[in-house]
Amino acid sequence: MQIMNNYFRGPTNMVYMMTNNDVMNQVIAFYRDMNGMLTFVGAYPTHGRGTGTKEVSGATANDGVDPLASQGSLTLSRDGRFLLAVNAGSNTISSFTITDNGVPVLADVKASGGAQPNSIDVFGNLLYVSNVGNAANNFASNITGFLINANRHLTPIPGSTHSLSTFNAQPAQVLFTPDGSKILVSELTSNHLSIFHVNQNGTVTGPIVNNSYGQGPLNCWMMESSKGLAL
Q: Which domain of life is it from (predicted)?
């Protein structure tokens, strides 16, 4: 299996956000002018449900401020051609094609491979989503992989669902390394950073579990240096 990573920059003057509405989740698009002012373009249903103000994680305050407790619940591909959204209330993910004028057009909706998806990252035509799980209903925290075809349709990768460092690790972000060879997952309740190796067929092996040296690791970012990758 070849993981494609062709770079093409889509419209750079668009801003996208997600409502997480518990009746019908939506992507909201804005046009950004040269002064940074935003103009509403439209609302685009994901055909899935968010959680509203309901928290997906028991590790965060039940105040409705950040219900998904994550980074990357709405993700634009590196080439700017498609947009991916989680629907934590219906356990699904949605893919959108980005048109030449920046409008998202719904392409596909698929089950996320677990309960309460809250973060997505994509490298080329390979996508991974993190699922918080639901300990009360015996659903473990995990990550699950999909392939994305030219029509932005999603195909689950057999054998790609993989548990994290603990049953109830509660992921906050799933993130590819810049070369796509590894996936990093920050875990809220275990205070771990789990690293997975990406195999040629799109599955993963691991995790290699690392201490985050802090409480509740949330957002991560990577940069290349002369000594390797800095996190």
A: Bacteria
In a domain, 216, yes or no: yes
Q: Give the predicted TM-score (pTM) of the model.
A: 0.87
Q: Which residues are bridge partners to 148 per DSSP?
A: 154
* CATH number for the domain harbouring residue 169: 2.130.10.10
Q: Which domain holds residue 146?
A: 14-230
Q: What is the pLDDT of residue 136?
A: 77
Domain count, the chain: 1
161 located within any domain: yes
Confidence check: pLDDT of 166 > 70 = yes
Separation CA 49–CA 3 (nearest Å) = 30
pLDDT digits (tens, 9 = 90+) for 104-115: 999 999 999 999
Residue 30 lies in a domain: yes
Is the residue at 4 inside a domain? Answer: no
Q: How many CB atoms lie within 10 A of CB 199?
A: 15
Phi, psi of 122 (to 5 degrees): -140, 140
